[in-house]
Amino acid sequence: MTAPAATAQAGARTVVPGTSEWRIVLGRLRQKRLAMVSLVIIGVIYGAGVAAPLLAPYSPTQTNLDRAVQGPSRQHLLGTDRLGRDELSRAMYSSRTTLIVTSAVVLSGGLIIGNTLGLLAGYRGGWVDTLIMRVGDVFSSLPALVMLILINATLGPRVVSWTRWVEGHTPFHGLVASGFPSYMLVFSALSLFFWVGTARVIRSQVLQLRERDYVMAAESLGAGPGRVILQHLLPNVSFLIILSLSATLGSIAGSEIVLTWFGVGVQPPAASFGAMLFEGSGTRTFQANPHLLLVPGVTVTLLLFAFALLGDALNDAIRGR
Q1: CA of 289: how far to CAs of 70, 73, 260, 286, in Å?
Q2: Residue 247: inside a domain, yes or no?
Q3: How far is it, in rounded angstroms, from Cα 242 to Cα 89?
Q4: Which residues of 152-166 are buried (b: 16+ CB within 10 A; e: fewer)?
Q5: Separation between Cα atoms, residue 33 and residue 287, nearest integer Å
Q6: Is the backbone of residue 69 left (phi > 0), alpha (psi -120 to 50) or beta?
Q7: Does the pTM exceed 0.90?
Q8: Residue 86: per-residue pLDDT
Q9: Does the pLDDT of residue 10 top 50, yes or no?
């Protein structure tokens, strides 16, 4: 979980990225063919997930035992699974699941929690810095995947029971049937671990920036901590924020898939690549029905490689390479 920190630290810069600076970075990024190909791959996979309710030929939960475990055909372009569910439709809705979880974790754990704590630790220093970093050390010292599995396995039934209570006492109905409890549990568990790397990177840069003349001048003129952080520090670490977030996207998507593969991630009826990979795993299964593993396997491989290549290209573009 600390790999994003190393990636982002390598691209650390001390500049105020104005509009022209961002245009230069985007121009460099457009010149990198692998980056553009990666963007297209990510866009197609996630775009299919967003448009799944409109474009998917079947419901991901629609079963037809008469057509169970069939290879690609006109009726089912990527074949069907053991329950006769359309593999193409399930793959599209699985992309949607990955997009929802990844976006939620990035916006909360990476963007909000990580950046806020990193800015506070770097600017305030003292006991605030010590407390935040020691908490981060605790989380980073834990075996993240094992802890995620334990958290989801332990709290899963309780979250479902709480959600049923909410359904029975509020106007909100259908939450359990929609898979809302598993979404919330996976999102919350992942957010606990994915803020640490971002916070460390932001803190290390802010420790340097807070000694700059323009920051000290703002403080001498009576600017409060909030104004200094928002107007003088945050713009100078914006490149680091983008780098850190881009480096964590693939890790978050992969973690969601792994958790579901172990059976403690997103639960049915929600579709997930992890569940598809589990159903298609096994030597005999692959030999008899290779499409059950190839459909999710190829899609996940392309998605994770695209995230990795895009992160490297963005790092090079920001560093001017």
Answers
A1: 8, 14, 21, 5
A2: yes
A3: 32
A4: beebbeebbeebeeb
A5: 36
A6: left
A7: no
A8: 95
A9: no
pLDDT in tens, 20-37: 677 887 888 888 888 899
Give bridge partners of residue 80 from the DSSP assignment.
86
Q: pLDDT class for 13, splitting at 50, 70, 90?
A: very low
Q: Is there a contact between 279 and 94 (Cβ–Cβ < 8 Å)?
A: no
- Specify whether the CB–CB gap between 201 and 9 falls below 8 A: yes
> Look-up: residue for tokens 């810095």?
129
Give φ, ψ of 80 to 5 degrees. Answer: -130, 165
Tokens of 71: 């290879």
Q: Sign of dihedral through CA atoms 101, 107, 109, 110?
A: positive
At 44 the pLDDT is 96
Tens-place pLDDT, residues 157-198: 888 899 899 888 888 888 887 778 888 888 888 888 888 888
**For residue 58, what are the domain limits?**
3-65+76-319
Cα–Cα dist 64/115, whole Å: 48
Cis preceding linkage at 157, omega within 30? no
Domain of 121, CATH number, reads: 1.10.3720.10
pLDDT score, position 53: 93
pLDDT at 19: 52
Place of tokens 């999710």: 296
- Cα distances (Å, whole numbers) of residue 56 to 66, 133, 183, 288, 295: 20, 46, 21, 26, 15
71 domain residue, yes or no: no
User: Into how many domains does the chain fold?
Assistant: 1
DSSP of 143-172: -HHHHHHHHHHHHHHHHHHHHHHHHHHSS-
Is residue 108's pLDDT more than 60? yes
